[in-house]
Amino acid sequence: MANFSIAYAFPVALTIIGGLLYHTSSKHVPDLHPSVVLTMAYVLQLVFCIAWAVHAKAGADFSTAWTVSEGRHWILGLAIGSIVMEVGFILAYRAGWNLSAADITSVAVISLLFLLGETFVYGHAFNLKRMLGIILCVIGLVLINWSGLGNQNPVDG
């Protein structure tokens, strides 16, 4: 873990603030087709990003963006990944998932998959600490999502 600093904490704080806003808003999407909702959101995002880029004087970055991105799959992955993730959350909330249960379940499963990928694809060490972390994470997912425990059901109704 890097030394704590504002420069280290700020990006994560942004993701937390953005995540709270994103999931709260997604929970309240009206009964419109997800493609319409996402188109409206992406048009607004485009306007915000262009205004931000103009304000930041990032014009030179736009002129080189296509040459840098040519043949790169990361930009396609960002586009498809964000659409699939957003449609998934909209549909999960419409199906009755609570905000916390849907988010923590997806984030925990993604983290577990990354942990396994780091081990098997990138050869990172798999030790007792990681194994215990995986076990605790899976136990936590079961406790959060198991409707038989108390009144805490991740799916409303």
Class from helix and strand fractions:
mainly alpha
Q: How would you characterize the largest beta sheet?
A: none
Count of runs of 4 or more consecutive helical residues: 6
Order of helices and strands: HHHHHH
Please report which band the strand proportion falls in: under 5%, 5-15%, 15-25%, 25-35%, 35-45% or over 45%.
under 5%
What is the count of distinct domains? Answer: 2
Helix content: over 70%
Mean pLDDT: 84
The 3D shape can be described as: globular
Oligomeric description of these chains: single chain
For the secondary structure, the number of strands is 0
| Distance N to C terminus | 41 Å
Runs in which pLDDT lies below 50 for 5 or more consecutive residues are: none
Notes on the protein architecture:
There is one protein chain. The radius of gyration is 19 Å and the shape is globular. The chain has 6 helices and no strands. The chain has helices at about 5-25, 35-55, 60-70, 75-95, 100-120, 130-145. It is mostly helical and about 160 residues long. It has 2 domains: about 20-95; about 100-155, no CATH class. The longest helix has 22 residues, at about 5-25. It starts with 5 loop residues before the first helix and ends in a 12-residue tail after the last helix.
Keywords:
2 domains, 0% strand, 6 helices, mainly alpha, 157 residues
Task: Write a compact overview of the structure shown.
With 157 residues, the protein is an all-alpha fold. The chain contains six helices and no strands.
